[in-house]
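Give me structure tokens for this 202-residue protein.
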Amino acid sequence: MWDLTSDFSRGDTAYTKVALDRHIDTTYFQEPCGVQLFHCLKHDGTGGRTLLEDGFNAAENVRKQSPDNFDLLTKVPIKHEYIEKVGECHNHMIGIGPVLNVYPWNNELYLIRYNNYDRAVISTAPHDVIHQWYIAHRALTTELRKPENEIWVKLKPGKVLFIDNWRVLHGRDAFTGYRRLCGCYLMRDDVLNTARFLGIQI
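Here you go.
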């Protein structure tokens, strides 16, 4: 579990009051967490709405508009990195994989690894390929930033939000005042296993 306030105690933009662009969490894990939980405990101030966006919908729109861009985003491995050395928190995590992950047997999209905050220096492909990758990535970013693809919700104290971290990107508005959230990451297999046992279709 994690407990988050804007006290600037960590070397992470999440611990500030600034707006955060849409992203997936833990792209620096070799397998990003499957589900994320947000629980608002307190907010005395303004702003701080949560942005939610269906990454699969944006990616499928790119596939329709430019199959070559989509294909490139499924093939070029990108390094994501998280380095932290603050107080007792010492972490250096690296995850490598394409932005769009598809099953090889049917090309179905199952994971989007999109995080411009944690993306490391791109040294995993030749320069000419990286140049084309940036064009493809811009096409995806443009689709993601269309207002019609955004859903904004206000987390109020006591409200809990579950996010499919392999599909749904999240972000936030800048905010004022004291804001405290807690939450955790859940393994996708554990969530799906429990859902099947309870007869819940996901």
